[in-house]
């Protein structure tokens, strides 16, 4: 019961639907070039899960944490660091503090069993800004933008997967694959709940982009701090975690006509598509602005935010 199984959110169908709906709802002032790559992006939506195989150990240990954000495990950490490595160091320091007094909690107080999803999303988001700048530069010079467009399409696959994972409530909790710990409400401890919710039910109702596009709404997140927006998006998703268990308790997701489960599926996949669409559009807008020079450099020891433990200043 200590370690949940590896979770692959939404299966192929859900991820593909989220990506397709996001791209199809990009407004005309957004990165419309992605529409030409929508089939490639949606067909490749589950690609990051393939980088998590046990036989590819280096890839697995780096990629696995990018798909979850088990917030119960770092409730002690406020505010959330604006650096992947500061976050990992904070986890380890807490592990050292509690490993004798609370070994069960300590066993999950590490990067794999807390997750790094918002960092993976932000890292990919910023790579999108960079490749979108290259598109604008090629267009300004009257050159061929097809190569940077392809780079952006690949990064859209990555961002779409992480945001899609974040939209799935079971990816934002230690209860990812069956209820852990005290269980006064008698929720299932069956690890198959994850797949029954996100894959079997989604496939059973034939989820399609047309089901969620009317639910996506107008573009948002045009201003404000994007890291904070991603954290808020993940919190909103995590707040629905227990709802998944309550609905499972009803009939185990066996009734494809269950309106409440359908509503939750539609709401969560639409939220993922909206967030992805917004991040793609915001990245395109950011790419129109020349990057500001940071002085002192994040690597400069004189930078007031320089952290000697990571060798850099956080974002």
UniProtKB/TrEMBL annotation:
InterPro entries: PLipase_C/P1_nuclease_dom_sf. GO terms for molecular function: hydrolase activity, acting on ester bonds. Residues 296-315 are annotated as: Disordered. This is Nuclease.
């Amino acid at each position: 019961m200590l370690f949940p199984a590896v979770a692959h959110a939404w299966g192929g169908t859900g991820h593909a639907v989220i990506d397709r709906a996001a791209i199809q709802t990009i407004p005309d002032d957004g990165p419309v070039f992605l529409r030409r790559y929508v089939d490639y992006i949606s067909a490749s939506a589950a690609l990051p899960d393939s980088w998590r195989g046990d036989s590819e150990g280096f890839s697995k240990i780096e990629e696995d944490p990018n798909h979850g954000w088990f917030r119960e495990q770092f409730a002690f950490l406020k505010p959330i660091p604006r650096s992947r490595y500061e976050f990992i160091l904070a986890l380890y320091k807490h592990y050292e503090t509690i490993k004798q007094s609370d070994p069960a909690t300590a066993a999950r107080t590490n990067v794999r069993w807390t997750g790094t999803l918002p960092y993976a999303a932000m890292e990919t988001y910023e790579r999108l800004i960079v490749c979108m700048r290259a598109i604008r530069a090629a267009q300004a010079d009257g050159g061929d933008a097809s190569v940077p467009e392809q780079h952006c399409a690949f990064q859209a696959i990555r961002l779409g997967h992480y945001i899609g994972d974040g939209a799935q409530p079971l990816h934002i909790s230690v209860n990812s694959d069956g209820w852990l710990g005290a269980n006064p409400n008698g929720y299932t401890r069956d690890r198959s709940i994850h797949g029954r919710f996100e894959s079997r039910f989604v496939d059973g109702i034939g989820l399609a982009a047309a089901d969620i596009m009317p639910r996506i709404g107008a573009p948002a997140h045009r201003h404000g701090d994007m890291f904070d927006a991603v954290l808020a998006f993940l919190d909103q998703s995590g707040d629905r975690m227990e709802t998944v268990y309550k609905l499972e308790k009803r009939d185990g997701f066996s009734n494809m006509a269950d309106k409440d489960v359908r509503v939750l599926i539609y709401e969560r996949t639409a939220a993922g598509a909206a967030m992805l669409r917004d991040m793609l559009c915001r990245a395109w807008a950011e790419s129109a602005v020349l990057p500001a020079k940071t002085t002192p450099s994040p690597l400069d020891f004189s930078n007031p935010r320089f952290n000697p433990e990571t060798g850099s200043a956080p974002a």
